[in-house]
Amino acid sequence: AVCKHGCKYGECMGPNKCKCFPGFTGKTCNQDVNECGLKPRPCEHRCMNTHGSYKCYCLNGYMLMPDGKCASSRTCAIVNCQYGCEEVQGEVQCLCPSGGLQLGPNRRTCIDIDECSTGKALCSYNRRCINTFGSYYCKCQLGYELKYVNGHYNCVDVNECVGNTHKCNIHAECLNTQGSFKCKCKQGYRGSGFDCS
């Protein structure tokens, strides 16, 4: 089967028919499902939508159970965790709702891990890492745009000379380069290409 526009987070099942992986939706499976907005709600207390999934956490004084329900916990109330807690072998530990968050110095509140600066992020060639609270995503490098080519999404060079996004002088010609462009003054003119006289 051929899916002309591709299936970003899914599989091509029939001519232009995508079967999305869990947590994704849309004609080309390129949209994240906000599970927190579904009815019935997947979490009893609080819900955090993540890329392709979601995390449950409880109000203070409650403990997250394996089924996503929140059970009252006297010990949790005493510890005063930001995102609920769990008891491990009689010891109370505060939780963070995402792998991209870690417990702060006070062991109660969660702080963001910058995956881009710690090197934990994996972005393919010519993509740059953008940190978000609790996670990160990969974006095309400046001068490139995400396009669906030959069966998959790729970062493709933007031809600034065609798109008229260049600022070359009227007496200069625009030369496209990988990820950028150059301006060269026409014959009989001198200058940087942005200024020609």
Automatic annotation (TrEMBL):
Gene3D superfamilies cross-referenced by the UniProt entry: Laminin
InterPro entries noted in UniProt: EGF (IPR000742), EGF-like_Ca-bd_dom (IPR001881), EGF-type_Asp/Asn_hydroxyl_site (IPR000152), EGF_Ca-bd_CS (IPR018097), Growth_fac_rcpt_cys_sf (IPR009030), Nephronectin_domain (IPR052235), NOTCH1_EGF-like (IPR049883)
Subcellular location: Secreted, Extracellular space, Extracellular matrix
GO molecular function, one term: calcium ion binding
The EGF-like domain, residue ranges: 32-71, 112-150, 157-195
Keywords: Calcium, Cell adhesion, Developmental protein, Differentiation, Disulfide bond, EGF-like domain, Extracellular matrix, Repeat, Secreted, Signal
CDD domains in the record: EGF_CA
One BP term from GO: cell adhesion
Family per record: Belongs to the nephronectin family.
Protein's recorded name: EGFL6 protein
Source organism (scientific name): Casuarius casuarius
Lineage, uppermost ranks: Eukaryota, Metazoa, Chordata, Craniata, Vertebrata
Gene encoding the protein: Egfl6_0
